[in-house]
Write a structure and sequence with these properties.
Elements: H1 7-34, H2 39-47, H3 66-79, H4 81-101, H5 104-115, E1 121-124, E2 140-144, E3 147-157, E4 165-171, E5 181-187, E6 193-198, E7 210-220, H6 231-267, E8 269-270, E9 273-274, H7 279-307, H8 313-337, H9 349-357, H10 366-379
Helix pairs in contact: 1-3, 3-4, 3-6, 3-7, 4-5, 4-6, 6-7, 6-8, 6-9, 7-8, 8-9, 8-10
The structure holds flavin-adenine dinucleotide (FAD).
Flavin-adenine dinucleotide binds next to strand 1, strand 3 and helix 10.
Length: 380
């Protein structure tokens, strides 16, 4: 697999792996149990460019390509999926839309501190009554002088508890259906900007996922991203990149579970031999290895297409669908291989199993991905 990558990609993997093994691995289980966001490590990540992976160097980023981006997310998620989630959401659905759709002034104002990790970004689309049906959002923004008055109840916001810059999807024209949705950028600290309680999640527990509520919040009209009514277009473009990131995250989690499973099959003896000698275990290992490689290839294909500026929307959806399903399968088998110990917090596979599960849900469920892929295939 590594042979398919260029030298620069192998170098990125090596450097991120070294950092994560040294800085993140020693605390990964603990931050999960304590639901703690590890600022001490995250600040170092900012200095290394992880918060602006594809942002041009002139704007404070690392200026890397999409294949490198996938590798960075994969490697961080291999150690802590919750921190991988922070980095992928920040890069792909917060920074990327500003960079792609923002005005020169907006980019200059928001991107450099985001790219350096001095400010954290969030993507606020989901509401209590609008999840898969994103066009059904109820948040509103109406003009009053130089400002929008925004009212919104956004739930399940990744990075929500720590985010400084939030992309809020809201209706600027309630009569225009999905065409009346726009994105305004809300900054933490604005009057009426309220951070809700943390979600008590099954996995990704070190990420402060929570609700964000805006009550008659005054946001300058100049904080509108692109033009009025562009919200769905911005959202879909962001999710094309975001889904590739979630797919890379799923690969990282599956890789971690696979490595733990292999290690365990060599050390655990039953019936007088290491369990790796039992054919039933070997069948599981074969299936895990194949699912993992196939997932990784789909992710790299989507990333390579993006780097070549070719359409990658369908491929990104395929990568996310396959890799997330594979990650839940692989982590499930890793638990199985560990027997009862796999169900205990004493072994890391229990965390990987919990973390993997949500990759089939966020940034579009598997069911929605099948609809997106089928629509694209049937159009061809
Ligand atoms: C940990 C976590 C982090 C998240 N982070 C963010 C974030 O940062 N920003 C954000 O905006 N959102 C975020 N979300 C929300 C996430 O994107 C939504 O949960 C997801 O899109 C599904 O929406 P829902 O939960 O409302 O489920 P629903 O849309 O209510 O779906 C329920 C079930 O019905 C199925 N379904 C719905 N419609 C159809 C259909 N037409 N055909 C077939 N099946 C259908 C779904 O696949 C699912 O199985 C996050 C969620 C979690 C759990």
């Amino acid at each position: 697999m590594e042979l398919l990558l260029e030298e620069k990609h192998r170098a990125v993997r090596q450097s991120v792996r070294r950092f994560c093994d040294r800085e993140l691995r020693p605390i990964a289980a603990q931050i999960d149990q304590e639901c703690r966001f590890p600022w001490e490590v995250v600040e170092k990540m900012g200095k290394l460019g992880y918060f602006g992976i594809q942002v041009p160097k002139a704007l404070g980023g690392a200026g890397l390509d999409s294949v490198s981006y996938a590798i960075v997310i994969e490697e961080i998620s291999r150690v802590s999926a919750a921190i991988g989630l922070c980095i992928t959401v920040h890069n792909s659905v917060a920074v990327y839309p500003i960079l792609s759709f923002g005005s020169k002034e907006q980019i200059q104002k928001w991107v450099p501190p985001l790219a350096r990790g001095e400010k954290i970004g969030a993507f606020c689309l989901t509401e209590p009554n609008a999840g898969s049906d994103a066009g059904g959002i109820e948040a509103t923004a109406h003009v009053d002088g130089e400002d929008y008055i925004v009212n919104a109840n956004k739930v399940f916001v990744t990075n929500g508890g720590i985010a400084d810059i939030c992309l809020i999807f809201c209706r600027t024209d309630p009569s225009a259906g999905a065409r009346g949705i726009s994105v305004v950028v809300a900054e933490r600290g604005t009057n009426g900007f309220v951070v809700g309680d943390l979600e008590d999640l099954c996995g990704m527990r070190a990420n402060p996922v929570c609700s964000i509520r805006l009550y008659d919040c005054r946001i300058p009209v100049s904080n509108l991203l692109a033009t009025k009514g562009m919200g769905m277009k911005i959202g879909l473009a962001a999710l094309d990149t975001g889904r590739m990131g979630i797919a890379a995250q799923a690969v990282g989690i599956a890789q971690a579970a696979f490595e733990e499973a292999i290690r365990y099959t060599k050390q655990r003896h039953q019936f007088g031999v290491p369990i790796e000698r039992h054919q039933a275990i070997q069948t599981m290992i074969a299936d895990m290895a194949t699912q993992l490689d196939a997932s990784r290839l789909l992710v790299y294909r989507a990333a390579a297409l993006k780097d070549k500026k070719l359409p990658f929307s369908k491929e990104s959806a395929m990568a996310k669908l396959f890799a997330s399903e594979a990650a839940t399968y692989v982590t499930d088998l890793a638990v199985q291989i560990h027997g009862g110990y796999g169900y205990s917090k004493a072994y890391a596979v229990e965390r990987y199993y919990r973390d993997a599960r949500v990759t089939r849900i966020y940034e579009g469920t598997s069911e929605i991905h099948r609809m997106v892929i089928a629509k694209s295939v049937l159009k061809e």
